[in-house]
Amino acid sequence: MTQELEELVSLFRKGDTRALAKLITMCEESEDKARRIIDMLDVDTQRRAHIVGFAGAPGIGKSTLINRVIEEYRRRDLGVGVLAVDPTSPYTGGAVLGDRSRMNRHSVDPKVYIRSMGTRGQLGGLSRATRDAIRLLRAYGKDVIIVETTGTGQNEVDVARVSHTVVVVMMPNLGDTVQFIEAGPVEVADVFALNKADLVGADATMAELRSMVQLRFASNSWVPPIVKTIGTTGEGVKELVEWIEKHYKYLVETGELRQRERRAYLYEVVDLTKHRLSTLVDSEIGSDSHALEKIDFLDGSANPYKASDNFVKHLIERISGHTQQKL
């Protein structure tokens, strides 16, 4: 395994796309493999790249719009990586929707890498493997990394924790626009894209969005612009990309970029810690069929809080012993 991994990393450093794909697959397979890969790549995983998240409801045209955004970045001779995060199939464990099908025309471009990834049950829409894939794309040298989320409403704000710039995509005729805004990931928006702007009702929706932005973001140093786009024709996409790049420049100049990356890092550390502790609890119970029976439940005075304290103490002792063995 070690020799195979070293060979893959060597090919990866030479720009081999198949090696990139295999390493991402290995990250999806297990946390242990992901840890070894990230350890081997070390500081390369922190190479400069603009991470752009696209959020919005299903059927709003995110994938079609992103297809045009890729074209615009390629006109600027920038390398692009795309992670289309879809719901996970309960049968295969893979991504259900496969949004990359809308972007297949770019598959022959060596400077574009597109990958569908499952949420793996994460409510926020981004799994641990997605964050590892972002690191791999940074190490691979992509200039722009686009993360498209599942469109799961408010839970979609998770994309803001890994992105430098968040594009919230909307469209006309969603019913009560104000109510939709309240339910969506609006608070994390850096840029709004009013897609399918050729539909009837686009001007009314635009007016509502402008009023909302004035109310919510007036006191902010960065006020999100609203860009009309038509994903099927590419109209407005050049302006959208220009605003995305302006936002990145703003982040760099104000020092906010560093702050966002720090917050993302701390969130991931906490998330990984919670996951590992949860795994440890399941493992402890699974490896000892009598583990639950050892938890006090004697009579009417049984106290679940006290029992939980004792169980946590036991787990800490186990972790401490395991750490000392490694050292």
CA(first)-CA(last) distance: 23 Å
- Enumerate the spans where pLDDT stays under 50 for 5 or more consecutive residues: 88-99, 121-125
Order of helices and strands: HHHEHEEHEEHEHEHHH
Describe the biggest sheet?
7 strands, parallel
Rg, Cα atoms, Å: 22 Å
Reported by name, the CATH topology of the largest domain is Rossmann fold
- The chain-level structural class is alpha/beta
Which superfamily, in CATH terms, is the homologous superfamily of the largest domain? P-loop containing nucleotide triphosphate hydrolases
Please estimate the helix content.
Answer: 40-55%
Number of helices: 10
Hey, roughly how much beta strand do the residues contain?
5-15%
CATH top level class name of the largest domain:
Alpha Beta
What's the CATH architecture of the largest domain? 3-Layer(aba) Sandwich
Mean pLDDT metric: 83
Query: How many beta-strand elements?
Result: 7
Spatial shape: globular
How many domains comprise the coordinates?
A: 3
